[in-house]
Specification:
Peroxidase, domain 1; glycoprotein; 14 helices; 2 domains; peroxidase; metal-binding; 324 residues; globular; binds 2-acetamido-2-deoxy-beta-D-glucopyranose; signal; binds protoporphyrin IX containing FE; mainly alpha; oxidoreductase
Length: 324
């Protein structure tokens, strides 16, 4: 109890100073206000994943996109309005999905404890729970207490979501702007152990890397030949390929094994081998237990980016619109 009051005090001081708000998130934030909140998120998320194994990748990426734009404030869930085009309608929205799962969870939570659990926390919990379904236990800890923002701008998604064409320097900068280190960059990129990518984000590597009709020399030639059978031209914008070939539904450390074989799908993946420090970190992550332990920590850093806590923001009633 004493620590709680102290924490609250620290939170109030920090939020007055507008710094270090991530420190105000905590374990089981809803234990008194909505005892069944986390269990409800887990049950509903697992129900959806059991019939859709592609979902963990969708929800994990949704959390990433939420956090990198205005902090983890549920802004990625907001619909465009008459006056503004929302993040979800920006170009990097390609294949963003899982909104229906968040809405399903929110509807249930509004029934059992109206106006208590934020959409931002639901996104963070659902990302964890969906990935954890494979293991039937929680794969990382999620601190809660985020509140929802009321602004979502497509232009901010464009300028904050890193592009798959970035090199190491610009990737490092993109993460540093969010307070994340090169360690976090390499570890969080491991999320690409699940999910898919669209051909148009990589076919320049197959067909026109430097504008001379050439292939990216850093791409494994056997793998490039395989990818050319899937992505047949530069203009293909619809075909998808697995990011972690043959195990794109399994959350594991294969991403790093594959990276070492020069089979990273995007230039941004391959870029992790071009820097001495990040390349060393890749070597350390080849062991899946190390990866899991470190992913836990980096997800906590990502999940704390620019969060609204205390009395900032609001608890949305519906995740796709701000309260009126
Ligand atoms: C390091 C910078 C990153 C870049 C440049 C990047 C870029 C991309 C791109 C271009 C896609 C493919 C989207 C599509 O074609 O549909 C993708 C997919 C994905 N990304 Fe990242 N990403 C990055 C970091 C992250 C992080 C930090 C996470 C989560 C912690 C993440 C999770 C995912 C997941 C799970 C998918 C698969 C989505 C699906 O299956 O629909 N990515 N990423
Ligand atoms: C979650 O699912 C478990 C197992 O089916 C069940 O025992 C529990 O009552 C459920 N909890 C909630 C809050 O729905
Ligand atoms: C937000 O947009 C989605 C898809 O366009 C739509 O199904 C949903 O009803 C909208 N939400 C609200 C609250 O209008
Ligand atoms: C859109 O902007 C107009 C004028 O600035 C304002 O009156 C209106 O309330 C805004 N509508 C929404 C949905 O924000
Ligand atoms: C992505 O944005 C386009 C408009 O740029 C929109 O039509 C589409 O529905 C958006 N996709 C998602 C998943 O929101
Ligand atoms: C995640 O990390 C925290 C703190 O470092 C630790 O207490 C916890 O046991 C870890 N959880 C898992 C599932 O590894
Ligand atoms: C990385 O990309 C930036 C922006 O495109 C460019 O200015 C820089 O020269 C590139 N760095 C390397 C090492 O290629
Ligand atoms: C390859 O890139 C060059 C330079 O950007 C461009 O002129 C050429 O049209 C491209 N080739 C194809 C097949 O798109
Ligand atoms: C290319 O990938 C194959 C497996 O598909 C692997 O055996 C080989 O070592 C890789 N080559 C390089 C240069 O990494
Ligand atoms: C957004 O929320 C802030 C407080 O967090 C409030 O001052 C502002 O008026 C809100 N804006 C809109 C458009 O609702």
């Amino acid at each position: 109890m004493k620590t709680n009051i102290l924490l609250l005090f620290v939170c109030i001081v920090f939020s007055l100073l507008s710094v270090g708000q991530g420190d105000c998130l905590r374990m089981n934030f809803y234990s008194h206000t909505c005892r069944l909140a986390e269990e409800t998120v887990k049950n509903i998320t697992w129900k959806h994943v059991s019939s859709n194994p592609a979902l963990p990748a969708k929800l994990l990426r949704l959390h990433f996109h939420d956090c990198f734009v205005r902090g983890c404030d549920g802004s990625v869930l907001l619909n465009s309005t008459a006056n503004s085009t929302a993040e979800k309608d920006a170009i990097p929205n390609l294949s963003l999905a899982g909104f229906d799962v968040i809405d399903d969870v929110k509807t249930q939570l509004e029934k059992i404890c109206p106006g208590v659990v934020s959409c931002a926390d639901i996104v963070s919990l659902a990302a964890r729970d969906s990935v954890s379904f494979q293991f039937k236990r929680s794969m990382w800890e999620v601190l809660t207490g985020r509140r929802d923002g009321n602004v979502s701008l497509a232009s901010e998604a464009l300028s904050n979501i890193p592009s798959p064409f970035l090199n190491f320097t610009t990737l490092e900068q993109s993460f540093a702007r969010k307070g994340l280190t090169v360690h976090d960059l390499v570890i969080l990129s491991g999320a690409h152990t699940i999910g898919i990518g669209h051909c148009n984000l990589l076919s320049n590597r197959l067909y026109n890397f430097t504008g001379k009709g050439d292939t990216d020399p850093t791409l494994n030639s056997t793998y490039a030949a395989f990818l050319r059978t899937k992505c047949q031209s530069l203009s293909d914008t619809t075909t998808i390929v697995e990011m972690d070939p043959k195990s794109s539904l399994s959350f594991d450390s294969d991403y790093y094994t594959i990276l070492k074989q020069h089979m990273g799908l995007f230039q941004s993946d391959a870029a992790l081998l071009t820097n001495k420090d990040s390349s060393k970190i890749v070597d350390e992550l080849l062991d899946s237990n190390d990866f899991f332990i470190k992913f836990n920590k980096s997800m906590n850093s990502m999940g704390a980016i620019g969060v609204l806590t205390g009395s900032s923001g609001e608890i949305r009633k519906k995740c796709s619109v701000v309260n009126s």
